[in-house]
Amino acid sequence: MTMRAAARAAGLLLALVGFALSAEARAETIEWRNGRWFDGQGFVARTFYSVDGVLTETKPPGIASSVDLSGKFVVPPFGDAHHHGIDSAEGLDAKIARFVEHGIFYVKNPNVIPDLLTPEVRQRLNRPDSIDVVFSNGGLTASGGHPVKLTPASPRAACSRACGQRTWRTKPTS
User: Fold this and answer.
1) Is 51 found in the same domain as 30?
2) Helix (H) / strand (E) containing 96
3) What's the Cα-to-Cα distance from 37 to each of 40, 54, 103, 133, 164, rounded to whole Å?
4) What local confidence, expressed as pLDDT, does residue 11 receive?
5) Would you state the pLDDT for residue 135?
6) Residues 69 and 117 in one domain
7) Is the Cβ–Cβ distance between 74 and 38 less than 8 Å?
8) Of 44, 74, 104, which one is at a domain's C-terminal end?
9) Structural domain harbouring 117
């Protein structure tokens, strides 16, 4: 199996594990056996247990159900530390689904407009069946700085706007 195929299988498997750890399954103790778990260096055959929504290698006294991972690869969830797309209700469900599908459970938006983070948006985030998101709620920038049009009509005009100059000088003045 190629590394890419293993990563895709691991992402799917992780999504299944995440689903199993959802609110409905938190009280149930599940054994996850015959998996190849990533330990930071490689994949190691191990058995884990989810007990009250917490993943552990310590075997609990009782197991409600068992899942045979059949030698599949399991990796920790990924995080996206710089993503501006989780910023409003527009297309939010599709974005959440795409992140979860690819094993990305943690997202940080470093520059969001707080007024767009309505209660509706906040209620769909930071839940066991969604993604965890943190927001910086507005970036710091200089006058005329980012966000400005990233492809200006001319570099000279962009520099003039960013520097607050009305004219462009090509020679130093005395």
Assistant:
1) yes
2) helix 92-101
3) 9, 16, 14, 25, 55
4) 52
5) 87
6) no
7) yes
8) 74
9) 78-135
Give the span between the Cα atoms of 141 and 110, in whole angstroms. 12
The number of angstroms, rounded, from the C-alpha of 93 to the middle of its chain's C-alpha atoms is 14
Do 32 and 69 meet the contact criterion of CB atoms below 8 Å apart? yes
**Structure tokens that stand for 161 in this block:** 């706007």
The count of structural domains within the chain is: 3
Give the CA distances from residue 155 to residues 149, 158, 161, 163, 165, in Å, rounded to whole numbers and listed in that order. Answer: 11, 5, 10, 12, 13
Going by C-beta distance under 8 Å and a sequence separation of 6 or more, which residues neighbour residue 85? 95, 109
- Give yes or no: residues 9 and 67 share one domain: yes
Verify that 85 and 63 share a domain, yes or no. Answer: no
Query: What are the mean pLDDT values of the chain's consecutive 10-residue runs (174 residues total)?
Result: 55 52 64 93 93 91 94 89 87 94 90 84 91 81 58 49 44 45
Task: Using the Cα atoms of residue 97, residue 102, residue 104 and residue 110 in order, give the sign of their dihedral.
Answer: negative
Residues 70 and 10 in one domain: yes
